[in-house]
Amino acid sequence: MRTEWRQQFNWRLTLVRLFVNGTAIILVAVIVPGVHLVNPSLFSIAIIALVIGLLNVFVKPIVQFITLPFLFVTYGLIMIITSTIMFWLLSLFLPRFITVDRGAAAVMAGLLMNLFTMILENVFGVVPPIVDSVPVNADVPIINQNQVAP
Prior knowledge:
This protein is mostly helical and about 150 residues long. It is built from six helices and two strands, in the order ααβαααβα.
């Protein structure tokens, strides 16, 4: 049986990701001196959050695939360059909403954008937990399905 895309698409997750991206953009614009929101309204922040989300979905995997050979050589520091490219593309696509003065500001903005997004996604539960929330009872022996309980 084929399920429709509406049943598979999670609107709450999308809205939380937009909120996380918008909050991260605001924090980056406040902290980094070379990043400016041209019109800091709710509409412009929503547009910026939507475009950075689309860039992260469609363009970032391509850039990461291209820079994959350098990932191990640079001990993962190439990911900062990837984030910088995404932030630079954001300012290139939306010059009426966000501007970046210089390259160092784009590097710092990309780094902080990744950091804030990672923290906020973990706070709001966008990413699944690494450790299962159900505690394991050490007193109860683990029974394999092939074994018979005594």
